[in-house]
Design brief:
About 30% of the residues are buried. This protein has a 5-stranded antiparallel β-sheet. The chain is globular. It is mainly beta. The structure holds zinc ion (ZN).
Length: about 90
């Protein structure tokens, strides 16, 4: 599990090669997003998810990553753990 924090002001960023950030995550991982990555959240179902921009907490790493979160968790301002893969964000 990785501790992450949401990044703000990312709505203007468009994924390179994909229509949505959720499709970007699925394309890069080869998986279908089916649950919110936050380990303390129980939301399931692809329709409830977005490809969220996050950064790692406590790591010497300022990279932007994409991981599936529900819309509620995409608004969180705290730090939380995710059990889903983090994929390097590539904007066009
Ligand atoms: Zn959630």
């Amino acid at each position: 599990m990785v501790k992450v924090k949401n990044l703000n002001n990312t709505s203007d960023k468009q994924p390179k090669g994909y229509d949505t950030w959720l499709e970007f995550w699925e394309g890069k991982t080869g998986k279908t997003a089916d649950h919110c990555g936050a380990t303390d959240c129980t939301v399931k179902g692809r329709d409830n998810l977005v490809g969220a921009h996050v950064k790692k907490v406590g790591a010497n790493d300022d990279s932007h990553y994409i991981t599936p979160l529900c819309r509620g968790c995409n608004q969180r301002t705290d730090e939380f753990y995710v059990d889903t893969e983090l994929v390097h964000a590539e904007s066009r």
